[in-house]
Write a sequence for this structure.
């Protein structure tokens, strides 16, 4: 049995224990700090687990349970854990129980949790979505190429009752020329994978939500090649796509009354004789030309054609996600994704949702005074600025050029990786902003 207790409630909870368990608790020095776990002997011979409960909405205070409880043991939540705290406990347990076992079994099996009655449907879908995103990000590029990432989109569509679309070859070159340019140097050709879904029973004019994910399965930097050390985590350069696959899964499982479109640019940025070069000029889907100032700024080229496509459908909201710039990490560190948004209402919704579910964002400015830094003497724009400042802002301003005025748009610049293991956040791929975006969409479009 798992019990949760706050520091304020510790004295009362201790008073209800039998003397042996109370003495044991004292000897363990338990103070009910958030995430603190202690095992106590039960009055009838069983074992109790006590965990320090944090603020409502934070699942991570329960995340250590999967590792701290005996390997493979089976537990249930105490009856006093109800409502939002029960949901936090289940989600935290699931986040902590994640293991990446594609190549070898985990060294230690996590403890297991009996599914409590009355659990919110969104909790399970969120846990499944996070595990899906983590698995995709953790796969190495030799296992997850453009075709395999596209197949993951198709599998999700088939599982959740959506229509999948695969575009490749000459059709891709015509419809998404900048994605074709990014993938020109790779031995594995690019693919655009799409998913379209209309909630059963929703009206024909239900709000359209568009998600665009950067799916660069590996990024060498192209001819502007990265140093060897900078490539060590580039299998995660498709994290934006993985995160939005997870968001799409939650939207469909919750049956939010919306229309949903997901587009993923699945591509590899490699070096070869056919790779795009610095100072090449490429045409975008919109017809505008882009001078390539740096081949390592490929993510914005992948996204710009996707944004142009979905914006033509007049969506109520567009969200893109990408591991786009190191500048965002310099500004905010690895744990805090940057939010750029052209709509005050949606910015407030996303920031509030992130705080409510312990999956925060930090808003950065679309500072228009820097937009001219993207001007080119030979094309409609450059893909980078010649100035060494504000790299994340400049990248967002590039994307902003492909979003017409009047369409609400949010751009998420994420890291997609945990540098070290913490409870519920194992080292490796991480679905940053997934729970935040899903919560914001559920709050806006779910039941009143």
């Amino acid at each position: 049995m798992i019990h949760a207790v706050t520091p304020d409630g510790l004295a009362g909870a201790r008073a209800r224990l039998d003397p042996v368990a109370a003495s044991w608790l004292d000897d363990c020095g338990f103070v009910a700090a958030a995430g603190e776990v202690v095992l106590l002997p039960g009055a009838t011979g069983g074992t109790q687990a006590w965990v320090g409960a944090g603020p409502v909405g934070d699942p991570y205070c329960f995340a250590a349970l999967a590792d701290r409880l005996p390997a493979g043991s089976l537990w249930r939540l105490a009856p006093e854990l109800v409502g939002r705290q029960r949901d936090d406990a289940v989600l935290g347990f699931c986040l902590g129980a994640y293991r990446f076992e594609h190549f070898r079994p985990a060294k230690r099996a996590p403890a297991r949790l009996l599914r409590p009655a009355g659990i919110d449907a969104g909790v399970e879908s969120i846990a499944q979505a996070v595990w899906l995103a983590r698995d995709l990000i953790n796969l190495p590029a030799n296992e997850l190429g453009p075709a395999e990432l596209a197949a993951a989109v198709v599998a999700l569509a088939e599982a959740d009752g959506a229509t999948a679309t695969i575009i490749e070859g000459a059709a891709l070159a015509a419809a998404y020329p900048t994605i074709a340019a990014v993938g020109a140097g790779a031995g594995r050709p690019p693919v655009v994978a799409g998913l379209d879904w209309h909630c059963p029973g929703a009206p024909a004019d239900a709000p359209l939500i568009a998600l665009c994910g950067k799916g660069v399965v590996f990024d060498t930097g192209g001819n502007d090649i990265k140093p060897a050390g900078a490539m060590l985590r580039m299998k995660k350069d498709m994290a934006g796509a993985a995160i939005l696959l997870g968001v799409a899964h939650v939207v469909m499982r919750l049956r939010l009354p919306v229309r949903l479109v997901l587009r993923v640019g699945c591509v590899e940025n490699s070096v070869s004789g056919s790779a795009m070069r610095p100072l090449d000029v490429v045409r975008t889907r919109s017809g505008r030309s882009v001078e390539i100032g740096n081949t390592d700024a490929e993510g914005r080229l992948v996204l710009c054609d996707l944004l142009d496509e979905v914006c033509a459908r007049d969506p109520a909201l567009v969200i893109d996600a990408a591991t786009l710039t190191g500048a965002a990490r310099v500004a905010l560190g690895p744990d805090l994704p940057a939010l750029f948004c052209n709509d005050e209402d949606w910015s407030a919704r996303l920031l509030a949702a992130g705080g409510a579910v312990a999956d925060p964002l930090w808003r950065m400015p679309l500072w228009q005074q820097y937009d001219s830094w993207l001007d080119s003497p030979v094309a409609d724009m450059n893909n980078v600025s010649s100035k060494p400042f504000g790299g994340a802002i400049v990248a967002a301003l590039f994307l902003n050029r492909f979003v017409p005025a009047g369409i609400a748009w949010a751009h998420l610049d994420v890291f997609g990786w945990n540098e070290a293991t913490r409870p519920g956040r194992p080292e490796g791929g991480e679905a940053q902003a997934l729970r935040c975006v899903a919560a914001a969409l559920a709050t806006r479009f779910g039941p009143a």
Notes: Residues 126-445 form a domain with the Aminopeptidase fold (CATH 3.40.630.10). The mean pLDDT is 96. The two ends are 34 Å apart (CA to CA).
